[in-house]
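ARCHIVE CARD
CATEGORY: sequence design from structure
SOURCE FIELD: tokenized fold
FIELD CONTENT:
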């Protein structure tokens, strides 16, 4: 377990596309299979980015709304940490694009982290390290627009992913956070886009071949393997961090997990003896928004309801990689805004 002191989450704001696509309107599936899929995944509808809108667009909306709510000057921001697997460009980094769009100082620290499902926890850890190094305010921007990479012929991705972003303001504070991490790169092909940038993209990577109806530039996911990984790794990680912190499950106000799907969340909760109120599924109206799913869950649950008790919070992201990351934080003084539709 890794511990970092002297930090706090000042505020969180999520932004989602206004465009909604209902599962029942996506077609190419029988009514019976559709009902079974919704019952398993819990996703009734999906937020889908409009043509031409990027991950940075949604991060910029969330960041601007959050800074207005908190009356925070752009000149007081010392760094942008952008976490995503769908950046605006291969080159340059999206964080530097956001620096200009938000009107931040030209001496801010800007860099991207290429990560998905556990990326919010990784971003918190990196932000905490920057605070420890002497910076005062960090904009942690997390988001993905993954629906563009979902193969319309592949139910395992088409009926799972949604688009969205969230921005958190990390500051100096009195809190102590704890983290633990897990990685098993031998299973990286469980969730991936096969087209390899490192060896050069080919024209055939972007069109279905005669032998294979799927494109190498589209997401490929083995849902059963993701389920197995989640149940193998997540409950022990949660139990271990509680044990090392000397806390019981009853002392945790909420376990906010990456919203992979309803079945995974409910099964983990059952294995740990937790109620749905302690370990909620809250992505039915959004889909799996990858790196944005944890802060979007918090926004949907707590947005503009500041009296809710959330002194002790466990966060856990898991999936792509295959990787997992867990954090213990306090959100007792965090202003959590209701998500913005844009």
């Amino acid at each position: 377990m890794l511990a970092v002191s002297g930090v706090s989450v000042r505020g969180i704001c999520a932004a989602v596309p206004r465009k909604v696509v209902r599962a029942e309107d996506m077609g190419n599936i029988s009514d019976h299979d559709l009902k079974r899929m919704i019952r398993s995944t819990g996703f009734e509808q999906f937020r889908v980015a409009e043509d031409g809108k990027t991950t940075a667009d949604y991060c910029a909306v969330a960041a601007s709304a959050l800074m207005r709510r908190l009356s925070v000057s752009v000149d007081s921001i010392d760094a942008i940490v952008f976490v995503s697997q769908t950046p605006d460009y291969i080159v340059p980094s999206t964080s530097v694009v956001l620096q200009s769009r938000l009107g931040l100082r030209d001496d801010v620290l800007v860099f991207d982290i290429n990560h998905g499902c556990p990326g919010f926890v990784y971003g918190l850890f990196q932000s905490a390290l920057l605070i420890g190094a002497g910076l005062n305010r960090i904009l942690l921007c997390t988001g993905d627009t993954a629906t563009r990479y979902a193969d319309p012929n592949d139910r395992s991705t088409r009926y799972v992913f949604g688009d969205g972003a969230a921005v958190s303001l990390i500051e100096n504070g009195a809190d102590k956070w704890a983290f633990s991490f897990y990685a098993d790169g031998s299973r990286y092909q469980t969730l991936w886009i096969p087209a390899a940038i490192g060896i050069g993209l080919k024209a055939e990577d972007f069109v279905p071949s005669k032998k294979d109806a799927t494109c190498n530039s589209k997401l490929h996911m083995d849902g059963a393997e993701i389920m197995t990984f989640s149940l193998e790794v997540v409950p022990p990680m949660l139990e271990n961090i509680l044990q090392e912190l000397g806390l019981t499950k009853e002392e945790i106000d909420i376990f906010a997990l990456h919203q992979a799907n309803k079945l995974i969340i409910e099964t983990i909760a059952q294995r740990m003896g937790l109620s749905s109120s302690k370990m909620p599924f809250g992505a039915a109206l959004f889909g799996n928004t990858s790196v944005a799913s944890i802060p979007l869950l918090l926004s949907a649950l707590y947005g503009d309801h500041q009296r809710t008790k959330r002194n002790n919070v466990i966060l856990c992201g898991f999936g792509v990689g295959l990787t997992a990351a867990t954090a213990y934080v306090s959100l007792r003084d965090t202003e959590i805004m209701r998500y913005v539709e844009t």
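CARD ANNOTATION: The chain has a mean pLDDT of 92. Helices lie at 31-41, 55-70, 94-102, 119-132, 155-158, 223-245, 262-272, 293-302.
SHELF: design records, drawer C
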